[in-house]
Task: inverse folding
Protein backbone atom coordinates (compact mmCIF):
# COMPACT_ATOMS: atom_id res chain seq x y z
CA UNK A 1 0.00 0.00 0.00
CA UNK A 2 1.29 3.44 -0.94
CA UNK A 3 0.70 6.54 1.10
CA UNK A 4 1.32 10.17 0.19
CA UNK A 5 2.13 13.06 2.52
CA UNK A 6 2.55 16.75 1.54
CA UNK A 7 6.07 17.79 2.57
CA UNK A 8 7.85 21.10 3.17
CA UNK A 9 11.27 19.57 2.46
CA UNK A 10 12.76 16.39 1.05
CA UNK A 11 13.33 14.99 4.51
CA UNK A 12 11.12 12.70 6.58
CA UNK A 13 12.09 14.56 9.77
CA UNK A 14 10.61 17.77 8.37
CA UNK A 15 7.06 18.84 9.13
CA UNK A 16 4.03 17.91 7.10
CA UNK A 17 3.14 20.80 4.77
CA UNK A 18 -0.09 22.49 5.87
CA UNK A 19 -1.19 22.95 2.26
CA UNK A 20 -2.04 20.07 -0.05
CA UNK A 21 -2.17 21.61 -3.53
CA UNK A 22 0.71 24.00 -2.95
CA UNK A 23 3.01 21.67 -1.01
CA UNK A 24 6.49 21.76 -2.55
CA UNK A 25 6.88 17.96 -2.40
CA UNK A 26 4.97 14.80 -1.75
CA UNK A 27 6.50 11.90 0.10
CA UNK A 28 5.37 8.67 -1.52
CA UNK A 29 5.85 5.87 0.97
CA UNK A 30 5.33 2.17 0.40
CA UNK A 31 4.17 0.54 3.63
CA UNK A 32 5.21 -2.97 2.51
CA UNK A 33 8.67 -2.29 1.08
CA UNK A 34 9.30 0.77 3.34
CA UNK A 35 10.58 2.52 0.25
CA UNK A 36 10.19 6.28 0.23
CA UNK A 37 10.60 8.82 -2.56
CA UNK A 38 10.04 12.55 -2.60
CA UNK A 39 8.20 13.71 -5.63
CA UNK A 40 8.24 17.35 -6.62
CA UNK A 41 4.73 18.81 -6.74
CA UNK A 42 4.60 20.49 -10.13
CA UNK A 43 1.07 21.71 -9.29
CA UNK A 44 2.41 24.06 -6.60
CA UNK A 45 3.21 26.81 -9.10
CA UNK A 46 -0.18 26.68 -10.87
CA UNK A 47 -2.13 29.90 -11.25
CA UNK A 48 -5.27 28.05 -10.24
CA UNK A 49 -6.57 24.56 -9.70
CA UNK A 50 -3.40 23.48 -7.86
CA UNK A 51 -5.36 21.03 -5.71
CA UNK A 52 -6.88 19.36 -8.76
CA UNK A 53 -3.53 18.89 -10.45
CA UNK A 54 -1.84 17.74 -7.23
CA UNK A 55 -4.61 15.16 -6.80
CA UNK A 56 -3.96 13.94 -10.34
CA UNK A 57 -0.26 13.51 -9.47
CA UNK A 58 -1.13 11.51 -6.34
CA UNK A 59 -3.52 9.28 -8.28
CA UNK A 60 -0.96 8.73 -11.06
CA UNK A 61 1.52 7.55 -8.42
CA UNK A 62 -1.00 4.79 -7.59
CA UNK A 63 -1.34 6.05 -4.04
CA UNK A 64 -4.13 4.46 -1.94
CA UNK A 65 -3.93 6.69 1.11
CA UNK A 66 -3.28 10.39 1.65
CA UNK A 67 -2.31 11.92 4.99
CA UNK A 68 -3.00 15.64 4.90
CA UNK A 69 -3.71 18.48 7.31
CA UNK A 70 -6.44 19.87 5.09
CA UNK A 71 -7.92 19.41 1.65
CA UNK A 72 -10.05 21.48 -0.72
CA UNK A 73 -13.31 20.26 -2.23
CA UNK A 74 -12.04 19.92 -5.81
CA UNK A 75 -9.00 17.89 -4.82
CA UNK A 76 -11.22 15.77 -2.59
CA UNK A 77 -13.56 15.08 -5.51
CA UNK A 78 -10.67 13.83 -7.66
CA UNK A 79 -9.17 11.69 -4.89
CA UNK A 80 -12.48 10.18 -3.83
CA UNK A 81 -13.24 9.41 -7.47
CA UNK A 82 -10.02 7.41 -7.52
CA UNK A 83 -10.84 5.67 -4.20
CA UNK A 84 -7.95 7.27 -2.31
CA UNK A 85 -8.56 7.18 1.43
CA UNK A 86 -7.87 10.48 3.16
CA UNK A 87 -6.64 10.74 6.75
CA UNK A 88 -6.10 13.83 8.85
CA UNK A 89 -2.37 14.39 9.40
CA UNK A 90 -1.16 15.62 12.78
CA UNK A 91 0.97 18.73 13.23
CA UNK A 92 4.25 16.83 13.50
CA UNK A 93 7.04 15.45 11.34
CA UNK A 94 6.40 13.24 8.34
CA UNK A 95 8.03 10.34 10.18
CA UNK A 96 5.73 10.72 13.21
CA UNK A 97 2.74 10.81 10.88
CA UNK A 98 3.79 7.56 9.21
CA UNK A 99 4.25 5.96 12.64
CA UNK A 100 0.86 7.21 13.84
CA UNK A 101 -0.79 5.92 10.70
CA UNK A 102 0.89 2.52 11.07
CA UNK A 103 -0.28 2.41 14.70
CA UNK A 104 -3.83 3.15 13.52
CA UNK A 105 -3.92 6.45 15.41
CA UNK A 106 -4.99 8.75 12.58
CA UNK A 107 -8.63 9.50 11.84
CA UNK A 108 -10.29 9.97 8.47
CA UNK A 109 -10.41 13.58 7.28
CA UNK A 110 -14.03 14.61 7.39
CA UNK A 111 -13.77 18.38 7.04
CA UNK A 112 -13.24 19.38 3.44
CA UNK A 113 -12.79 23.12 2.97
CA UNK A 114 -14.36 25.04 0.10
CA UNK A 115 -10.98 25.76 -1.42
CA UNK A 116 -8.94 28.96 -1.54
CA UNK A 117 -9.14 29.22 -5.33
CA UNK A 118 -5.94 31.13 -5.82
CA UNK A 119 -6.22 33.07 -2.58
CA UNK A 120 -4.32 30.57 -0.47
CA UNK A 121 -0.89 32.14 -0.69
CA UNK A 122 -1.79 35.80 -0.66
CA UNK B 1 -17.45 59.36 -24.92
CA UNK B 2 -16.99 56.72 -22.23
CA UNK B 3 -16.46 57.81 -18.64
CA UNK B 4 -15.66 55.13 -16.05
CA UNK B 5 -16.28 55.69 -12.35
CA UNK B 6 -14.17 53.56 -10.05
CA UNK B 7 -12.77 53.27 -6.55
CA UNK B 8 -10.62 50.85 -4.63
CA UNK B 9 -13.23 50.09 -2.01
CA UNK B 10 -16.95 49.61 -1.94
CA UNK B 11 -19.25 52.23 -0.42
CA UNK B 12 -17.11 55.15 -1.57
CA UNK B 13 -19.73 56.64 -3.84
CA UNK B 14 -19.18 55.17 -7.32
CA UNK B 15 -22.85 54.52 -7.94
CA UNK B 16 -23.85 57.92 -6.51
CA UNK B 17 -21.47 59.63 -8.93
CA UNK B 18 -22.21 57.45 -11.96
CA UNK B 19 -25.99 57.64 -11.58
CA UNK B 20 -26.03 61.39 -11.03
CA UNK B 21 -23.65 62.12 -13.91
CA UNK B 22 -25.92 60.18 -16.24
CA UNK B 23 -29.04 61.84 -14.81
CA UNK B 24 -27.67 65.37 -15.13
CA UNK B 25 -26.64 64.90 -18.77
CA UNK B 26 -28.86 65.65 -21.74
CA UNK B 27 -28.80 62.03 -22.78
CA UNK B 28 -26.67 59.12 -21.58
CA UNK B 29 -26.21 55.38 -21.38
CA UNK B 30 -25.53 54.15 -17.86
CA UNK B 31 -23.84 50.75 -17.66
CA UNK B 32 -23.68 48.99 -14.31
CA UNK B 33 -20.62 46.73 -14.46
CA UNK B 34 -20.74 45.93 -10.76
CA UNK B 35 -22.26 42.59 -11.75
CA UNK B 36 -21.96 40.99 -8.31
CA UNK B 37 -24.13 43.66 -6.71
CA UNK B 38 -25.58 45.85 -9.40
CA UNK B 39 -27.70 48.54 -7.76
CA UNK B 40 -27.74 51.57 -10.07
CA UNK B 41 -31.15 50.47 -11.33
CA UNK B 42 -32.58 51.06 -7.84
CA UNK B 43 -32.17 54.79 -8.49
CA UNK B 44 -33.38 54.87 -12.07
CA UNK B 45 -36.29 52.47 -11.52
CA UNK B 46 -36.26 51.85 -15.27
CA UNK B 47 -38.88 50.37 -17.46
CA UNK B 48 -37.19 47.13 -18.47
CA UNK B 49 -37.15 46.50 -22.20
CA UNK B 50 -34.99 43.47 -22.69
CA UNK B 51 -33.39 40.59 -20.80
CA UNK B 52 -30.72 38.27 -22.15
CA UNK B 53 -28.98 35.22 -20.69
CA UNK B 54 -25.20 35.32 -20.81
CA UNK B 55 -23.44 32.02 -21.28
CA UNK B 56 -19.85 30.89 -21.51
CA UNK B 57 -18.57 27.80 -23.29
CA UNK B 58 -17.37 24.81 -21.31
CA UNK B 59 -16.07 21.52 -22.69
CA UNK B 60 -18.00 18.30 -22.69
CA UNK B 61 -16.45 14.90 -23.40
CA UNK B 62 -17.67 12.10 -25.62
CA UNK B 63 -16.26 9.11 -23.74
CA UNK B 64 -16.53 6.84 -26.77
CA UNK B 65 -14.03 9.00 -28.65
CA UNK B 66 -11.64 9.79 -25.76
CA UNK B 67 -8.65 7.44 -25.65
CA UNK B 68 -7.03 8.94 -22.54
CA UNK B 69 -4.05 10.63 -24.19
CA UNK B 70 -4.35 13.49 -21.66
CA UNK B 71 -3.30 16.17 -24.15
CA UNK B 72 -6.19 18.32 -22.88
CA UNK B 73 -5.32 17.67 -19.22
CA UNK B 74 -1.72 18.75 -19.78
CA UNK B 75 -2.72 21.73 -21.90
CA UNK B 76 -5.13 23.35 -19.41
CA UNK B 77 -3.28 26.04 -17.45
CA UNK B 78 -6.19 26.29 -15.01
CA UNK B 79 -6.20 22.55 -14.27
CA UNK B 80 -9.87 22.23 -15.10
CA UNK B 81 -9.44 18.67 -16.40
CA UNK B 82 -8.24 15.46 -14.79
CA UNK B 83 -8.04 11.90 -16.05
CA UNK B 84 -9.03 9.50 -13.28
CA UNK B 85 -9.90 5.82 -13.55
CA UNK B 86 -9.87 5.89 -17.37
CA UNK B 87 -12.29 8.79 -17.46
CA UNK B 88 -11.96 12.48 -18.20
CA UNK B 89 -13.41 14.65 -15.46
CA UNK B 90 -14.17 18.34 -16.10
CA UNK B 91 -14.36 21.08 -13.46
CA UNK B 92 -16.67 23.56 -15.15
CA UNK B 93 -16.27 26.25 -12.50
CA UNK B 94 -12.47 26.22 -12.97
CA UNK B 95 -12.69 26.42 -16.79
CA UNK B 96 -11.91 29.84 -18.31
CA UNK B 97 -13.61 28.98 -21.63
CA UNK B 98 -10.46 29.34 -23.74
CA UNK B 99 -11.40 26.41 -25.98
CA UNK B 100 -7.81 25.13 -25.99
CA UNK B 101 -8.71 21.60 -24.92
CA UNK B 102 -10.88 21.20 -28.03
CA UNK B 103 -8.01 22.30 -30.25
CA UNK B 104 -5.44 19.90 -28.79
CA UNK B 105 -7.72 16.83 -28.72
CA UNK B 106 -6.55 14.53 -31.55
CA UNK B 107 -9.80 12.54 -31.49
CA UNK B 108 -12.36 15.36 -31.49
CA UNK B 109 -13.69 13.87 -28.27
CA UNK B 110 -14.47 17.29 -26.81
CA UNK B 111 -17.14 19.73 -27.82
CA UNK B 112 -18.46 22.90 -26.23
CA UNK B 113 -21.74 23.47 -24.48
CA UNK B 114 -23.26 26.68 -23.13
CA UNK B 115 -23.21 27.36 -19.43
CA UNK B 116 -25.37 30.30 -18.34
CA UNK B 117 -23.56 32.47 -15.78
CA UNK B 118 -25.91 35.47 -15.53
CA UNK B 119 -28.12 37.97 -17.32
CA UNK B 120 -28.04 41.41 -18.87
CA UNK B 121 -31.05 43.70 -18.70
CA UNK B 122 -31.75 46.83 -20.70
CA UNK B 123 -34.10 49.52 -19.51
CA UNK B 124 -34.98 53.17 -19.92
CA UNK B 125 -35.67 55.96 -17.46
CA UNK B 126 -36.21 59.51 -18.78
CA UNK B 127 -33.03 60.58 -20.57
CA UNK B 128 -31.00 57.52 -19.58
CA UNK B 129 -30.66 54.07 -21.15
CA UNK B 130 -29.69 51.56 -18.48
CA UNK B 131 -27.77 48.35 -18.93
CA UNK B 132 -27.25 46.20 -15.92
CA UNK B 133 -25.46 42.88 -15.58
CA UNK B 134 -26.07 40.24 -12.94
CA UNK B 135 -23.70 37.38 -12.27
CA UNK B 136 -25.26 34.25 -10.79
CA UNK B 137 -24.12 33.51 -7.23
CA UNK B 138 -21.14 31.17 -7.08
CA UNK B 139 -19.79 31.96 -10.54
CA UNK B 140 -16.08 32.73 -10.46
CA UNK B 141 -15.83 35.67 -12.87
CA UNK B 142 -18.07 38.48 -14.08
CA UNK B 143 -15.71 39.33 -16.95
CA UNK B 144 -17.82 37.66 -19.70
CA UNK B 145 -20.88 39.66 -18.57
CA UNK B 146 -18.96 42.95 -18.45
CA UNK B 147 -17.51 42.21 -21.87
CA UNK B 148 -21.02 41.79 -23.24
CA UNK B 149 -22.35 44.86 -21.37
CA UNK B 150 -19.69 47.04 -23.00
CA UNK B 151 -20.06 45.56 -26.48
CA UNK B 152 -20.32 48.00 -29.38
CA UNK B 153 -24.09 47.73 -29.82
CA UNK B 154 -24.63 48.95 -26.24
CA UNK B 155 -22.08 51.77 -26.35
CA UNK B 156 -22.88 54.25 -29.12
CA UNK B 157 -19.71 56.01 -30.27
CA UNK B 158 -20.85 59.65 -30.19
CA UNK B 159 -22.95 59.49 -27.07
CA UNK B 160 -22.15 59.83 -23.43
CA UNK B 161 -21.68 56.48 -21.66
CA UNK B 162 -21.16 56.29 -17.92
CA UNK B 163 -19.57 53.07 -16.70
CA UNK B 164 -20.23 52.21 -13.05
CA UNK B 165 -17.31 49.89 -12.19
CA UNK B 166 -17.06 47.13 -9.59
CA UNK B 167 -14.94 48.01 -6.54
CA UNK B 168 -11.27 47.09 -6.41
CA UNK B 169 -8.58 46.89 -9.06
CA UNK B 170 -8.81 43.31 -10.31
CA UNK B 171 -9.86 41.68 -13.62
CA UNK B 172 -13.47 42.87 -13.52
CA UNK B 173 -12.34 46.49 -13.12
CA UNK B 174 -9.74 46.19 -15.86
CA UNK B 175 -12.42 44.81 -18.19
CA UNK B 176 -14.71 47.73 -17.25
CA UNK B 177 -12.18 50.53 -17.90
CA UNK B 178 -10.21 49.15 -20.83
CA UNK B 179 -12.05 51.17 -23.49
CA UNK B 180 -12.89 54.17 -21.28
CA UNK B 181 -11.86 57.65 -22.43
CA UNK B 182 -11.64 58.96 -18.88
CA UNK B 183 -11.59 57.54 -15.35
CA UNK B 184 -13.09 59.25 -12.33
CA UNK B 185 -11.59 57.88 -9.11
CA UNK B 186 -13.90 58.38 -6.14
CA UNK B 187 -12.11 58.64 -2.80
CA UNK B 188 -13.03 58.82 0.88
CA UNK B 189 -11.24 60.97 3.46
CA UNK B 190 -9.94 58.02 5.50
CA UNK B 191 -6.73 55.99 5.65
CA UNK B 192 -8.61 53.06 4.10
CA UNK B 193 -9.76 55.46 1.42
CA UNK B 194 -6.20 56.52 0.64
CA UNK B 195 -4.92 52.96 0.52
CA UNK B 196 -7.62 51.93 -1.91
CA UNK B 197 -7.31 55.15 -3.92
CA UNK B 198 -3.66 54.31 -4.39
CA UNK B 199 -4.62 50.90 -5.83
CA UNK B 200 -6.91 52.35 -8.50
CA UNK B 201 -4.42 55.17 -9.12
CA UNK B 202 -1.78 52.54 -9.95
CA UNK B 203 -4.29 50.76 -12.18
CA UNK B 204 -5.29 53.78 -14.28
CA UNK B 205 -1.63 54.75 -14.67
CA UNK B 206 -0.87 51.21 -15.86
CA UNK B 207 -3.69 51.52 -18.40
CA UNK B 208 -2.49 54.97 -19.41
CA UNK B 209 -5.94 56.48 -18.89
CA UNK B 210 -6.62 60.17 -18.35
CA UNK B 211 -8.08 60.44 -14.86
CA UNK B 212 -8.99 62.70 -11.98
CA UNK B 213 -10.14 62.27 -8.41
CA UNK B 214 -13.48 63.13 -6.91
CA UNK B 215 -13.27 63.62 -3.15
CA UNK B 216 -16.44 62.37 -1.52
CA UNK B 217 -17.73 62.75 2.07
CA UNK B 218 -15.46 65.76 2.68
CA UNK B 219 -15.32 67.06 6.25
CA UNK B 220 -13.86 70.40 7.42
CA UNK B 221 -10.77 68.69 8.91
CA UNK B 222 -7.70 67.41 7.05
CA UNK B 223 -8.45 65.03 4.21
CA UNK B 224 -5.82 62.30 3.80
CA UNK B 225 -7.11 61.54 0.29
CA UNK B 226 -6.60 65.19 -0.70
CA UNK B 227 -3.08 65.08 0.74
CA UNK B 228 -2.40 61.95 -1.36
CA UNK B 229 -3.59 63.76 -4.48
CA UNK B 230 -1.40 66.79 -3.76
CA UNK B 231 1.66 64.62 -3.14
CA UNK B 232 1.13 62.73 -6.37
CA UNK B 233 0.04 65.77 -8.38
CA UNK B 234 -3.34 64.23 -9.15
CA UNK B 235 -6.07 66.44 -10.51
CA UNK B 236 -8.96 66.93 -8.06
CA UNK B 237 -12.12 67.25 -10.12
CA UNK B 238 -14.58 68.16 -7.42
CA UNK B 239 -15.48 67.76 -3.76
CA UNK B 240 -18.74 66.40 -2.37
CA UNK B 241 -19.35 67.42 1.24
CA UNK B 242 -20.25 64.99 4.00
CA UNK B 243 -23.93 65.84 4.02
CA UNK B 244 -26.65 64.04 5.94
CA UNK B 245 -29.29 65.23 3.54
CA UNK B 246 -27.39 63.80 0.57
CA UNK B 247 -26.90 60.52 2.43
CA UNK B 248 -30.59 60.28 3.26
CA UNK B 249 -31.74 61.01 -0.28
CA UNK B 250 -29.26 58.52 -1.68
CA UNK B 251 -30.21 55.83 0.86
CA UNK B 252 -33.83 56.27 -0.16
CA UNK B 253 -32.93 55.55 -3.76
CA UNK B 254 -33.44 59.12 -4.91
CA UNK B 255 -31.37 60.71 -7.66
CA UNK B 256 -29.98 63.75 -5.84
CA UNK B 257 -29.57 65.96 -8.92
CA UNK B 258 -33.34 65.77 -9.33
CA UNK B 259 -33.96 66.79 -5.73
CA UNK B 260 -31.34 69.38 -4.82
CA UNK B 261 -30.31 72.35 -6.92
CA UNK B 262 -26.80 72.49 -5.45
CA UNK B 263 -26.10 68.89 -6.42
CA UNK B 264 -27.58 69.46 -9.82
CA UNK B 265 -24.99 72.23 -10.20
CA UNK B 266 -22.17 70.17 -8.71
CA UNK B 267 -22.68 67.17 -11.01
CA UNK B 268 -23.38 69.37 -14.01
CA UNK B 269 -20.10 71.17 -13.54
CA UNK B 270 -18.28 67.87 -12.87
CA UNK B 271 -19.61 66.50 -16.15
CA UNK B 272 -18.52 69.67 -17.99
CA UNK B 273 -15.04 69.44 -16.48
CA UNK B 274 -14.63 65.80 -17.50
CA UNK B 275 -16.04 66.32 -21.00
CA UNK B 276 -13.57 69.19 -21.54
CA UNK B 277 -10.72 67.03 -20.23
CA UNK B 278 -11.59 64.27 -22.69
CA UNK B 279 -11.85 66.71 -25.59
CA UNK B 280 -8.49 68.18 -24.61
CA UNK B 281 -6.97 64.68 -24.35
CA UNK B 282 -8.25 63.69 -27.79
CA UNK B 283 -6.72 66.82 -29.32
CA UNK B 284 -3.47 66.64 -27.35
CA UNK B 285 -2.94 62.84 -27.50
CA UNK B 286 -5.04 61.58 -30.41
Result:
Amino acid sequence: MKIAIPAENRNIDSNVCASFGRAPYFLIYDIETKESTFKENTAAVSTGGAGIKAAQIIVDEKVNTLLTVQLGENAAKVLKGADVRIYKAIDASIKENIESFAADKLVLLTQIHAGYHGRGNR
Amino acid sequence: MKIAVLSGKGGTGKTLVAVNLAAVSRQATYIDCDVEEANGHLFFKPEWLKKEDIAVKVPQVNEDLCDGCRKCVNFCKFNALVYIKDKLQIFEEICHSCGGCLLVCPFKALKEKDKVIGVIQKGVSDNVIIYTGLLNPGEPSGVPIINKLLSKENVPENQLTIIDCPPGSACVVMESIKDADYCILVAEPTLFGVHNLNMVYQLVKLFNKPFGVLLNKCLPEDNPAEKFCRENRIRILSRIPFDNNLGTLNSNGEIVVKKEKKYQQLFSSLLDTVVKEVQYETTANP
